[in-house]
Design goal:
387 residues; Helix Hairpins; alpha+beta; Heat Shock Protein 90; five-stranded mixed beta sheet; two-stranded antiparallel sheet
Amino acid sequence: MHDLNSLGLDAPGYPFPMAESKQLWAERRQLGATLIAAMVICFAGLKFVVPATDVSVHNILHHLNFLPLMIAGMLYGSRGAIYASLFAFAINAPLIARHWYEWPLDAKDQIVELTIFSAAGLVAGYLADRERLHRDSLERTRLELEKVYLELRENVTKMKKAERLSAAGQLAASLAHEIRNPLASISGAAGILQRRAAPPEYQQDSLDIIQKESQRLNKLLTGFLNFAKPRSPRLQRTDVNELMLSVLSLVSHTAELNSNKLSYTPPIRGAEIDCDPEQLKQVLLNLVINAIDASPAGSEICLRTLIRESGTAIEIEDNGSGIPEDAVERIFDPFFTTKPKGTGLGLAISSMIVSQHGGTLSFHSNPGGGATFLIELPANVEATHAS
């Protein structure tokens, strides 16, 4: 008797889970080969025992040879099916030889049936081999994708770290540049006072410069600290209309000084959102004051609150000169400004506050001139922490 493992049924690709140990896998392969061999031997032995006159039983036993050959092909592939077929022919050869002279029709039937069953086993083995190769290919692809994903995630982490370092370097350079001018003015004014030879009016001018530039430095550093380490929003239910009217009340005097008209279009229905009212008011004040500074005297600045399915939108539209083309990409960068005396932190801080509210701050140029800034807040606001 031959062991089917020695006949090549230990071909690679036995379909057990990859997490199984190699020892357990080998044991199961051994068990499968033993069961197939036992089935072939059992069916052949029964043919020897059953009388030749019992034709129906012999036909059933002949047909049962189909099972081990198909199982061998499905589990062990085409090579396993070949060796299982050779093993079946070898085991059944004595019976076929005995029947060749006593019962030639049955012997020929056995040869034909074993040949057909072997062919079926080969087809099953071929299909199993293809499926196994496909599965192996998918597994290799999965491993390659996992490797690429890990490398990509590592590269993204490195890029984020490099980006943070680059941003920190740019902030430090910009802050140093912004501080240099006030310090130079303070130093010059202090030098005049130190010499004590300047006329009284010059001394007073120097004191005014020192005070003014000191306030400018304080404002610059306060804005930088607010940008570098902002506090998290303290969300509370807020009526948008009341918030907008409060902002209009605060900026009305500034608009009158510039001869600008402020108009506000409330939503059709009431609008309440979860927000930090102080932070959102800071954003709105900054945007409206920017609109007043950008607008010519006598022009109108329009504010609108819109209720959408995705949330609440607030528009601030001016009729100024608009955003220069070379400033579009940098308008929200810290320390970038188009104002002669601006710090360049207003829009950067505003964008960050809106982002912490889960929303977005954007703008677009108006066809007739000017720009419209748009605050979009989601329906369900979930405060996020700045990193």
